[in-house]
Amino acid sequence: MRNRAAGELLPTVVRHKGFRLLFFSNEDSPREPVHVHVRRGDALVKFWLDPSVRLADSHGFTPGELREIDSVMRENEAAIRRAWNDYFGD
User: Fold this and answer.
1) Looking at per-residue confidence, does 43 or 8 come out higher?
2) Distance of alpha carbon 57 from alpha carbon 44, whole angstroms
């Protein structure tokens, strides 16, 4: 993942089978709790990590894809949290 100083607007945390797990660098202020967006093509989903991994909103993914993304989220939760803290300085 590139850092904030590099100016990347959508820092990627994980790539998996065409899914891109990313942060939006221009999050609202005050910033929402830890979460990640997943994009593939025009489809986009948001998952919260606090207090646990759960679906927030989805557009364009099938139920099967959402189950796979949920599994990827759980497998990579620690790495996602580290990347969030490194990027946003929390």
Assistant:
1) 43
2) 8
The residues that bridge with 48 in the sheet, in sequence order, are: 35, 54
Span 84-89, mean pLDDT? 87
Are 48 and 35 in contact by the 8 Å Cβ rule? The answer is: yes
Tokens encoding 23 = 């942060």
Counted domains in the chain: 1
Which residue, among 52, 22, 53, 50, has the nearest Cα to 38 in the 3D structure?
Answer: 22
* Dihedral sign of CA atoms 88, 7, 78, 64 in order: positive
Of 34, 78, 16, the closest CA to residue 24 belongs to 34
Per the structure, the complete domain to which residue 55 belongs is given by 4-88
